[in-house]
Design brief:
Alpha-Beta Plaits, about 230 residues, alpha+beta, 11 strands, two-stranded antiparallel sheet
């Protein structure tokens, strides 16, 4: 038996890393007395996995983790218990049963993710309002030319060196409005494109300067048939 938990990451918690986030959920599951199964062996650990680690500094309202259970539970009751103990910056949105097969795991079926990119509103600091006051029609025209490119070569850091790769096939949507950018990008084990790489490539393409202190937020993650 498996469950899938949808959650967010806000406030100060956007600065904790993936391992700390995992430890936080282990403590939450224990406190909520959820019957999460453990691995066997000398150092047993909870059988849980995240769809895709979130970059430090990025907020989200569309994160997912899967957990294997020793016994069945009422998902509404589990959601209620978690909401009662979870910190405000780690909101829990939903708990549901999922098929037990490995091929249906969040990491396996994940294919795309949606992001928003915007400049925080800071009074008396016009440098952070570059996106908000940009000419929408001009930006739309630049985006059309950017997406019309057959190839978009971007640097990618591997474990040993920097390589160039074509990010164009991994960009499914790039939109602009008064609130900033919205992107739909390939995400997951097969292909994973970070929104920072797209924004940097776009501004380099246009010859414009990347606005300072942009904030990146993950909105949702998808399989080929819809939200996880």
């Amino acid at each position: 038996m498996k469950i899938r938990v949808k959650f967010g990451k806000e406030g100060a918690l956007i600065y904790i890393g993936h391992l700390d986030l995992m430890r936080a959920f282990q403590k939450l599951f224990r406190k909520a007395e959820l019957p999460v199964a453990f691995s066997e062996g000398f150092n047993p650990h909870m059988l849980m996995s995240f769809a895709q680690p979130l970059s430090v500094g990025m907020s989200s309202e569309g994160e997912y983790l899967d957990a294997r259970l020793k016994e069945d539970i009422d998902t509404e009751e589990a959601l209620k218990k978690l909401k009662e103990i979870v910190p405000a910056d780690l909101p829990i949105y939903a708990v549901k049963h999922i098929p037990d097969e490995k091929k249906m795991g969040a990491m396996t079926v994940l294919s795309k993710a949606r992001y928003k990119v915007f400049a925080p509103v800071v009074p008396n600091d016009s440098s952070l309002h570059t996106i908000a006051i940009a000419d929408g029609l001009h930006m739309e025209s630049e985006i059309e030319k950017f997406l019309g490119s057959e190839h978009l070569i971007s640097p990618k850091m591997t474990k040993t060196k920097v390589e160039e790769w074509d990010i164009r096939p991994l960009i499914h949507e790039l939109l602009f409005n008064d609130n900033g950018f919205e992107l739909l990008l390939s995400c997951g084990s097969k292909a994973n494109l970070k929104p920072q790489a797209v924004i940097e490539a776009f501004y380099e393409f246009t010859g414009m300067k990347v606005p300072k202190d942009l904030h990146y937020r993950r909105i949702e993650m998808y399989s080929e048939v819809g939200p996880l």
